[in-house]
Design brief:
By secondary structure, the protein is α+β, with helices and mostly antiparallel strands. Helices cover 43% and strands 13% of the residues. The longest helix is centred in the C-terminal third of the chain and has 25 residues. The protein has 2 helices and 2 strands; from the N terminus they run H-E-E-H. Strands 1-2 form a two-stranded antiparallel ribbon. It starts with 5 loop residues before the first helix and ends with a helix.
Amino acid sequence: VLAEHHGPALEQAAAQVNVAGAYTWGGETYKQVPRGYPADHPRAEWLKYTGLAVFAPPLPIEHAREASLIDAAMGHFQQMAPVYRWLRAALYS
């Protein structure tokens, strides 16, 4: 989050997911920026997270009985993929 390469990339990935639909974020543990980190940092809000997850909105129950379930789920996976790509790049670079 603090790194000048990965931090802005996280913001970009999050923005892509946020404009894609009604996705919610999980992993925020702290109510304020943890001690030792600058509270005025441009990405201070992300420092409150000890994990990172994106959740898709619930699918209609009708999808459970139809072949469209796979397409609907894949659509959500594709919309959330920028965060997956960010995590992968941050971990393996």
